[in-house]
């Protein structure tokens, strides 16, 4: 099934609660929550207190993308703040297996993200344990960037690997996803689409519905876990 995960990084933080309710009511499947520490990525975004406040406004799936060094230090805190799924970067974990197991032990969905220049071979000894792989289609750190062309091929290769092994892991793409390129990414094998700018710029409800219509008009999509 294809899913839309609007990234709240592009929301108006002065009225975050209302904006979140608006996109959830319009049909957003996940809320994509980008946490940045200013070390792993240049920018600093927000953390647990913001998530806790939002948790009071919606029961939508919290898809938490951690762009922080050694995220294993904060797994319990993110669960308590309302995370349903946690994505950690392969590049930010000294002990990736331990970190993924810590997420799973908390009963949360576990995902690993790869930066654009990180090889798929980093997944060799962890893929079987994952609910989702996040392929970064821009360099992490900021919203509003242009999708990097060679990521279509990367997604295609990953889809072949996942299907070839008979696994059910979802493939999420994040960065520069628009109504113009989403179908090509669907054809490449991705099934969960993060969209920040292309949801929050302009009419949010209309944008969410437009993505959902593209999904509904496509046949099937990956079944997912
Ligand atoms: O992880 C991210 C940045 O590191 C964001 O999720 C991503 O950039 C979404 O924003 P946009 O759709 O505007 O590119
Ligand atoms: Fe993200």
Automatic annotation (TrEMBL):
<feature type="binding site">
    <location>
        <position position="65"/>
    </location>
    <ligand>
        <name>a divalent metal cation</name>
    </ligand>
</feature>
<feature type="binding site">
    <location>
        <begin position="174"/>
        <end position="176"/>
    </location>
    <ligand>
        <name>substrate</name>
    </ligand>
</feature>
<dbReference type="GO" id="GO:0046872">
    <property type="term" value="F:metal ion binding"/>
</dbReference>
<feature type="binding site">
    <location>
        <begin position="141"/>
        <end position="144"/>
    </location>
    <ligand>
        <name>substrate</name>
    </ligand>
</feature>
<feature type="active site" description="Proton donor">
    <location>
        <position position="174"/>
    </location>
</feature>
<keyword id="KW-0479">Metal-binding</keyword>
<dbReference type="Pfam" id="PF00834">
    <property type="entry name" value="Ribul_P_3_epim"/>
</dbReference>
<feature type="active site" description="Proton acceptor">
    <location>
        <position position="34"/>
    </location>
</feature>
<feature type="binding site">
    <location>
        <position position="65"/>
    </location>
    <ligand>
        <name>substrate</name>
    </ligand>
</feature>
<feature type="binding site">
    <location>
        <position position="34"/>
    </location>
    <ligand>
        <name>a divalent metal cation</name>
    </ligand>
</feature>
<keyword id="KW-0862">Zinc</keyword>
<feature type="binding site">
    <location>
        <position position="7"/>
    </location>
    <ligand>
        <name>substrate</name>
    </ligand>
</feature>
<dbReference type="InterPro" id="IPR013785">
    <property type="entry name" value="Aldolase_TIM"/>
</dbReference>
<dbReference type="InterPro" id="IPR011060">
    <property type="entry name" value="RibuloseP-bd_barrel"/>
</dbReference>
<dbReference type="GO" id="GO:0006098">
    <property type="term" value="P:pentose-phosphate shunt"/>
</dbReference>
<feature type="binding site">
    <location>
        <position position="176"/>
    </location>
    <ligand>
        <name>substrate</name>
    </ligand>
</feature>
<protein>
    <recommendedName>
        <fullName>Ribulose-phosphate 3-epimerase</fullName>
        <ecNumber>5.1.3.1</ecNumber>
    </recommendedName>
</protein>
<dbReference type="InterPro" id="IPR000056">
    <property type="entry name" value="Ribul_P_3_epim-like"/>
</dbReference>
<feature type="binding site">
    <location>
        <position position="174"/>
    </location>
    <ligand>
        <name>a divalent metal cation</name>
    </ligand>
</feature>
<dbReference type="GO" id="GO:0004750">
    <property type="term" value="F:D-ribulose-phosphate 3-epimerase activity"/>
</dbReference>
<keyword id="KW-0464">Manganese</keyword>
<comment type="pathway">
    <text>Carbohydrate degradation.</text>
</comment>
<keyword id="KW-0170">Cobalt</keyword>
<feature type="binding site">
    <location>
        <begin position="196"/>
        <end position="197"/>
    </location>
    <ligand>
        <name>substrate</name>
    </ligand>
</feature>
<dbReference type="GO" id="GO:0019323">
    <property type="term" value="P:pentose catabolic process"/>
</dbReference>
<keyword id="KW-0413">Isomerase</keyword>
<comment type="similarity">
    <text>Belongs to the ribulose-phosphate 3-epimerase family.</text>
</comment>
<comment type="function">
    <text>Catalyzes the reversible epimerization of D-ribulose 5-phosphate to D-xylulose 5-phosphate.</text>
</comment>
<keyword id="KW-0119">Carbohydrate metabolism</keyword>
<feature type="binding site">
    <location>
        <position position="32"/>
    </location>
    <ligand>
        <name>a divalent metal cation</name>
    </ligand>
</feature>
<dbReference type="InterPro" id="IPR026019">
    <property type="entry name" value="Ribul_P_3_epim"/>
</dbReference>
<dbReference type="GO" id="GO:0005737">
    <property type="term" value="C:cytoplasm"/>
</dbReference>
């Amino acid at each position: 099934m294809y899913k839309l995960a609007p990234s709240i990084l592009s929301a108006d933080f002065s009225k975050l609660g209302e904006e979140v309710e608006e996109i959830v009511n319009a049909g957003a499947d996940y809320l994509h929550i980008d946490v940045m520490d200013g070390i792993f990525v240049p920018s600093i975004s927000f953390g647990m207190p913001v998530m806790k406040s939002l948790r009071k406004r919606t029961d939508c799936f919290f898809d938490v993308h951690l762009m922080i060094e050694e995220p294993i230090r904060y797994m319990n805190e993110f669960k308590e703040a309302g995370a349903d799924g946690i994505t950690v970067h392969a590049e930010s974990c000294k002990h990736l297996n331990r970190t993924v197991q810590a997420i799973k032990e908390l009963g949360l969905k576990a995902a690993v993200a790869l930066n654009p220049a990180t090889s798929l071979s980093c997944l060799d000894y962890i893929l079987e344990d994952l609910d989702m792989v996040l392929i970064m289609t821009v360099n992490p750190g900021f919203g509003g960037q242009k999708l990097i062309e060679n990521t279509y091929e990367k997604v295609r290769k990953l889809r072949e690997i996942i299907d070839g092994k008979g696994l059910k892991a979802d493939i999420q793409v994040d960065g520069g996803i628009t109504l113009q390129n989403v179908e090509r990414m669907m054809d490449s094998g991705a099934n969960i689409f993060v969209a920040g700018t292309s949801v929050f710029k302009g009419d949010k409800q209309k944008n969410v519905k437009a993505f959902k219509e593209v999904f509904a008009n496509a046949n099937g999509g990956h079944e997912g876990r």
